[in-house]
Amino acid sequence: MQYLPGVAGVEAGPKYLAVREALRRRASALPEHTLLPPEPVLCAEYGVSRITLRRAVDGLVADGHLVREQGRGTFVSRPGIRHEYRESFVHRIAGFHSVMTEQGAQVGTTVLSQKVVPAAPAIAAELSIATADDVVELVRLRSVDGLPNHVVRSFLAADRYPKAASEDFGHGSLYEFLRREYQADLAHARLVVDVGTAAADEAEVLDVITGSPLLVVRTTVRDSAGHPLVHSFSRLRPDVSQVEFEVSVGGR
């Protein structure tokens, strides 16, 4: 058994989140089963109380980065990707809620914002509408098995989908709503994957520290004629998310 080496700097933000992130980074660089120093040592290194330290460690245990053994201590573990968002846009366009539910996960949705706003130039371009045309902006926090997974912002032309401004999206799928209420033909999807960092408001709801890396997935869904129907961008915690692409050739 060995102890963790030197202390990494604790970043700005809520103390327990900063300590948790610093411990996560240190643990990720060490072999599995490495023994952490005792609580008093860690408290002194990070300059926090036992309550703050335990809250940080509890989060890492829940995420699978650490494991406690009664009478022995806390050890480094290796979490698997437990919440895999495996969507194939070749055979169907189902959306996050449908895919994760089919995998047996408990999907939670909190609507953070739902309103009609003028389309910003980038959104207008994706939806092939004029800048400042009304769009429904829907912002949702999605969780899987109780753990925050991502924040998704979706935009739809308000004159085409007026019901989207008042529909209860606390449950179910936006794509299924479009099919049910408007017989929408969701035929094609274009995805752009990038990396970003968590702003303060995102960090709070995703339970990470400000500036943490996020996986950014931008999606524009079109009908069979190529007309854009909905544009979304999701900002996902990379430690609990995975996006899979599937490509087929010649209709196979």
From TrEMBL:
DNA-binding keyword on record: yes
Tree of life domain: Bacteria
UniProt record, GO biological process: negative regulation of DNA-templated transcription
Entry-linked Pfam families: GntR, UTRA
GO function term, MF aspect, one: DNA-binding transcription factor activity
InterPro entries, alphabetized: Bact_HTH_transcr_reg, Chorismate_lyase_/UTRA_dom_sf, Tscrpt_reg_HTH_GntR, UTRA, WH-like_DNA-bd_sf, WH_DNA-bd_sf
Keyword annotations: DNA-binding, Transcription, Transcription regulation
Domain HTH gntR-type: 13-79
PANTHER family named in the record: MANNOSYL-D-GLYCERATE TRANSPORT/METABOLISM SYSTEM REPRESSOR MNGR-RELATED (PTHR44846), MANNOSYL-D-GLYCERATE TRANSPORT_METABOLISM SYSTEM REPRESSOR MNGR-RELATED (PTHR44846:SF1)
Protein name: Transcriptional regulator, GntR-family
Organism: Modestobacter italicus (strain DSM 44449 / CECT 9708 / BC 501)
